[in-house]
Amino acid sequence: MTTMTLHGIDEETVATLKARARRESTSVNALTLHLLRNALGLEKPKRSTIHHDLDHLAGTWSADDATAFTRAVASPAEVDQGLWR
Fold first, then answer.
1. Mean pLDDT in the chain?
2. Does 24 fall in a domain?
3. Does the predicted model carry a pTM greater than 0.85?
4. Nearest CA to 13 among 31, 37, 39, 38?
């Protein structure tokens, strides 16, 4: 493998690389190699996308809401014996 040195990297780019590497629990070197390979079309990007657009709804039901929902979906869970004759 070849070792390369990059010159002239601005502070904003360095800070962004370091922050992203921390978020992804990887090294700046590994992240940079991954980004280069993606940009050059040598590595396929991951298809898994994490969406956070419904996060604000998580944990917002009260006990009464949960009880009402359970009652509302109870009847479809029952087997209609007349359909099985």
1. 89
2. yes
3. no
4. 31
